[in-house]
Design brief:
This is Centlein. One of its GO terms (biological process) is centriole-centriole cohesion. Keywords: Coiled coil. It comes from Phaethon lepturus. The protein is mainly α. The protein has a domain of 125 residues. Helices cover 92% and strands 0% of the residues. Helix 1 runs antiparallel to helix 6. The radius of gyration is 40 Å and the shape is rod-shaped.
Length: 261
């Protein structure tokens, strides 16, 4: 019985040892899992903090772009109002010029048979008419220059908005670490790297040059109309409306870009 008891105790000790070994292995496995989960949680916490910082930066940038958009919108509305007033004055001037032309023509035929004093009066009126025509030409030149300047400003703002959007997309595609690493490899600052990303390509340069040439041709055409014989009002109106339509499209494009930005 003692021998059986001893053997039974030995079997129990051996079973307990095996159970203890299994428990130790399980405990080690659990400890490794706890360590892995702790490291994963730490990494996720770091990632969440980084995302929070990016979110704060994006929120500030959004606020700045909204302010820029509202400011630009107000400026465009003021310029549109000013341009509308100029258009009304131009139409009134054209009507007055047409009436003056008709009146001058009638008076010339009626006064052709009168004395030199009457002819002198007619000449004075013609001089006045010429002064008004010259004033109208000055007004049209100023209007066209202002209109062309507005269009050029819009083109510049559109290009700047597109560049800003492209840089933002590029930066968004890269993590902050990758962006800093690229700047370190190139041995430049982050600001310099952004400027490199904003460099205008050959196609954009050619497009800008072509737009400049078109504007130059348009101004030359307006000058040619002003120097041409009457009537030229319809051709002048078509040329002005063409540029106004171009400006309207640019305003819509810029508004759309700023809205998406």
């Amino acid at each position: 019985m003692k021998r059986h008891l001893i053997e039974d105790l030995r079997s129990r000790v051996k079973a307990n040892q095996e159970n203890e070994k299994t428990s130790n292995e399980t405990l080690e496995s659990l400890e490794r899992k706890v360590k892995t989960l702790s490291e994963d949680c730490s990494n996720k916490k770091t990632s969440i903090d980084a995302l929070k910082q990016r979110l704060n930066v994006a929120t500030k940038e959004k606020s700045q772009y909204e302010q820029m958009y509202h400011k630009t919108k107000d400026e465009l509305e003021k310029k549109d109002l000013k341009l509308t007033n100029l258009e009304s004055k131009m139409i009134e001037t054209e009507c007055a010029m047409t009436k003056l032309e008709t009146t001058a023509s009638q008076q010339l035929h009626g006064l052709a048979k009168q004395s030199g004093q009457a002819l002198e009066t007619v000449q004075k009126k013609l001089l006045l008419t010429n002064d008004k025509v010259e004033e109208f030409r000055t007004f049209v030149k100023a209007l066209t220059r202002e209109l062309q300047h507005n269009v050029q400003e819009l083109r510049t703002k559109i290009k700047q908005a597109k560049k800003m959007r492209e840089v933002r997309v590029c930066k968004k595609g890269l993590s902050q670490e990758s962006f800093q690493l690229a700047a370190s490899i190139l041995n430049v600052s982050a600001t310099d790297l952004e400027e490199i990303l904003e460099v205008e390509d050959d196609e954009e340069t050619a497009k800008t040059k072509m737009e400049f040439e078109k504007d130059k041709e348009w101004l030359q055409y307006i000058q040619k109309l002003l120097e041409a014989q009457f009537p030229f009002a319809s051709y002048l109106m078509d040329a002005i409306l063409e540029k106004l339509n171009e400006k309207k499209k640019l305003v819509e494009e810029y508004g759309s870009l700023m809205k998406h930005t």
